[in-house]
Backbone:
């Protein structure tokens, strides 16, 4: 019988080497875990102290090994038009995807548009951001979606989803642009009856029918939103907005929307939009009822509406305004010198694209 010799010392040496390797890997990945959390806490802290309108109560590193990140208490965003406050939020990345962060939001937030707080309810809200490590940690893509929304307990919208992705700048970009994001958006089942609970909106949006708005387009910014840029007021601001295609529905009234707007020297919109609809009179009446255009515009009559629809529209950079389809009218809305016009008819002040 053959005797197989054993080599205990050799086996012990291999085991010792394996244990040392595991220890080195544990220290290495532990250092990465701690380093990423420290970096996140430091950058968020700098942003909160930069005076950009974002504040936070406290920042605590997570102790959960399945995700690397921080826990925020009382994060708050303040803008000239109001504020949004959360009781808490989690900002984390997975061990295998350190450049893709998930923002875990609570079910409720506090919205204040200057007249008092209102509770905003969110069903299963989700938000994620993919950062570009070699471009100053600028977002390469960001997605936010939520199920049914409520305002002070009253249904506000069925769902909301916004998806943005960094695009490539072209020669036809608005002046002063340094970055462009392609975006898609889908707002379903907006209930305007919930808006009067916020003072000021009742007068501006007195619509009773549900609203849906979905489409795609672009938004240009005057700076790439890197970590440093976000910490340096003024933070990146829009220079232009393009709607490649969008569908708007208010009750049974529908319209297609195409157009492009840029910020003028005062920050107000300049450019043109085209509304395509098979029921222009009803659309204008709905807009007038909502306080978006003067009631006198509705009285221009069908003949005048058809005359306006037949007006030619100059193509905007990288976008054209096709002729209306059979049964449709095309309503041209132009923005210039701080005013909006439906064809030659003044309908109000142009909106601000940037403060």
Residues:
């Amino acid at each position: 019988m053959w005797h197989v010799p054993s080599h205990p010392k050799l086996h012990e040496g291999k085991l010792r080497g394996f244990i040392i390797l595991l220890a080195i890997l544990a220290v290495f990945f532990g250092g990465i875990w701690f380093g990423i959390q420290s970096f996140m806490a430091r950058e968020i802290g700098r942003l909160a102290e930069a005076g950009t309108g974002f504040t936070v109560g406290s920042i605590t590193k997570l102790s959960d090994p399945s995700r690397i990140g921080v826990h925020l208490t009382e994060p708050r965003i303040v803008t000239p038009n109001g504020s949004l406050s959360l009781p808490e939020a989690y900002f984390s990345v997975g061990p295998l995807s350190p450049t893709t962060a998930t923002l875990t939001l609570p079910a409720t937030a506090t919205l204040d548009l200057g007249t008092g707080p209102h509770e905003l309810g969110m069903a299963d809200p989700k938000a994620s951001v993919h950062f570009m490590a070699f471009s100053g940690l600028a977002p390469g893509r960001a997605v936010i979606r939520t199920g049914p929304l409520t305002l002070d307990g009253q249904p506000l919208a069925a769902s909301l989803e916004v998806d943005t992705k960094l695009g490539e700048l072209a020669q036809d970009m608005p002046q002063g642009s340094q970055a462009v994001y392609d975006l898609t958006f889908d707002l379903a089942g907006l209930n305007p009856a919930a808006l009067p609970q916020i003072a000021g909106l009742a007068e501006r949006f007195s619509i009773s029918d549900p609203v849906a708005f979905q489409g795609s387009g672009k938004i240009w910014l005057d700076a790439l939103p890197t970590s440093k840029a976000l910490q340096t007021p003024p933070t990146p601001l829009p220079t232009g907005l393009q709607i490649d295609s969008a569908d708007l529905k208010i009750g049974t009234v529908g319209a297609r929307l195409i157009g492009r707007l840029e910020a003028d020297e005062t920050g107000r919109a300049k450019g043109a939009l085209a509304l395509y609809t098979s029921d222009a009179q009803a659309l204008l009446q709905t807009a007038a009822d909502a306080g978006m255009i003067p009631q006198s515009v509705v009285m221009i009559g069908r003949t005048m509406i058809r005359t306006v629809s037949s007006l030619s529209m100059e193509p905007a950079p990288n976008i054209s305004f096709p002729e209306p389809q059979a049964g449709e009218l095309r309503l041209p809305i132009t923005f210039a010198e701080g005013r909006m016009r439906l064809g030659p008819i003044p309908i109000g002040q142009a909106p601000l694209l940037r403060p």
Remarks:
- Residues 50 and 231 are 5 Å apart (CA to CA).
- Residues 105-251 form one domain.
- The chain has three domains: 17-81+90-97, 105-251, 272-354.
